[in-house]
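## Example record

The block below lists the input lines for one assembly entry, exactly as stored, with component labels intact.
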Amino acid sequence: MGRVIAVANQKGGVGKTTSAVNLSACLAAAEKETLLVDLDPQANSTSGLGISHLQENMHIYYSLLALKPIGEIVLPTKLKFLKLVPSARDLIGAEVELIEVKGREYLLKSALSPVRHLFEFILIDCPPSLGLLTVNALVASDSVLIPLQCEYYALEGISSLLDTYQRVKQAFNQELEIEGVLLTMYDERTNLSKQVADEIRRYFKEKVFNTVIPRSVRLGEAPGFGKPIILYDLSSKGAQAYLNLAKEVIENEKKS
Amino acid sequence: MGRVIAVANQKGGVGKTTSAVNLSACLAAAEKETLLVDLDPQANSTSGLGISHLQENMHIYYSLLALKPIGEIVLPTKLKFLKLVPSARDLIGAEVELIEVKGREYLLKSALSPVRHLFEFILIDCPPSLGLLTVNALVASDSVLIPLQCEYYALEGISSLLDTYQRVKQAFNQELEIEGVLLTMYDERTNLSKQVADEIRRYFKEKVFNTVIPRSVRLGEAPGFGKPIILYDLSSKGAQAYLNLAKEVIENEKKS
Ligand SMILES: Nc1ncnc2c1ncn2[C@@H]1O[C@H](COP(=O)(O)OP(=O)(O)OP(=O)(O)O)[C@@H](O)[C@H]1O
Ligand SMILES: Nc1ncnc2c1ncn2[C@@H]1O[C@H](COP(=O)(O)OP(=O)(O)OP(=O)(O)O)[C@@H](O)[C@H]1O
Ligand SMILES: [Mg+2]
Ligand SMILES: [Mg+2]
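Predicted structure tokens for the full assembly:
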């Protein structure tokens, strides 16, 4: 049974999609069967992997409503061991529409259960909110990976995120753990990055990944070509960082 | 009657809060009576202006539910002509709780109507979503200011944002216009910024502000001190840019 990891943080623009796309690509490069689930109506993970046109109704919204089995909407990507469950704008209404549905917190968990055994890692890219979509991701997951930008506002959101994590753990998913806190967009030239990183390490201690993702324009360029960083520029700092992160995640999986 | 401007974009981390805080501070520095409304449960505009502890129930959530008049929760700031309507984490539940309330799209508009005449500019900082809070902001506003990061993923979200803008304009607020599109975190050393900026200008033409906000670490440091950039480092590129933006907004207001 593979490990399901939600990539979540309600603070916007902290590197959730960049981490979900590139970590899943690096796990696939290590020949781990990997599935990336795009649970954000912005569908950035979907375009970040080069998928631009979807067939009508062939995306996650229809699987959440159990209208289409996930096995039918899974797409191949440019990497042999990486598959994608795409998202689309229709998902925008889901946060409100799913409120009335029975067992609304478990919709993703039930949609994923028929395919879980096919993958060693399943990553879920979450939208910037603590609404029903993110709650569904946390209920369906074994652990949550928290990207944290080394900026002041990013620190402020931590306690809300941990409240939601605790609430979901107690009410819906006792097994849920923290996979790790990932420092992103770290700029070694600024004091701001150093100060915020120190504070995050004081707060989360050994839960902070050893790998730190540096600010690197190549990471920002890659989505424009629909490629993860290892296919766009393998020699870049960003690619090396996400390859190291994948090693850490694989090591952690072996230990658990 | 003052001008009400929503600062909105569902893409996360594009500079909504940074623009709302610093534009409102610069308008206040030009001695325009200005009100900043924090409509984001993350309450980043609130802390960005140095407000850390709120009295019990003295924030926007209670005004949306018409339990407390906005006049009672407005707070002074370090700038004489700038006032703040603070936010708090309680607002997280609002997107769902307000669905059942009659006239749910007009809650902010009605809450603001008793104080509109007191201010020349009212800015509303929106959360990274197109849910009921952002819809409330658009219904209450004369115009929307759209911060756009010069990054690839930021381009992708434009059409959803314009769809919501059109929908709100037709259904709830015919007067709603686009105040302008603001290019943020522009890094002149990278092709990525130039390419994305060119594409945004092709798409939005004269709606793009002449002022471009450069990437500047001082803008990221200022919130840690609870100060807008003009009080933290007036000589910085970021401060000069937001002062120029305030001039443009004041000019536009005179013309309309
Ligand atoms: N390490 C990095 N170096 C440089 N740019 C980065 C890095 N990580 C992410 N970016 C860029 O920063 C922007 C924000 O990242 P991303 O979209 O991954 O964040 P997010 O948390 O998924 O945002 P949202 O909250 O909207 O879902 C994107 O344009 C991305 O390309
Ligand atoms: N021009 C700039 N130069 C450098 N850093 C910036 C700039 N503008 C914003 N930032 C920083 O980038 C981060 C994102 O900006 P901000 O929080 O204002 O975006 P937002 O759109 O309000 O995010 P959210 O979607 O979470 O509400 C913050 O840490 C902020 O300090
Ligand atoms: Mg994202
Ligand atoms: Mg914000």
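The pocket of adenosine-5'-triphosphate (ligand 1) is lined by residues A 12-18, 40, 44, 128, 184-185, 213, 215-216, 219-220, 223, 238; B 11-13, 128, 151, 153 (CB under 6 Å). The longest strand of chain B covers residues 177-184.
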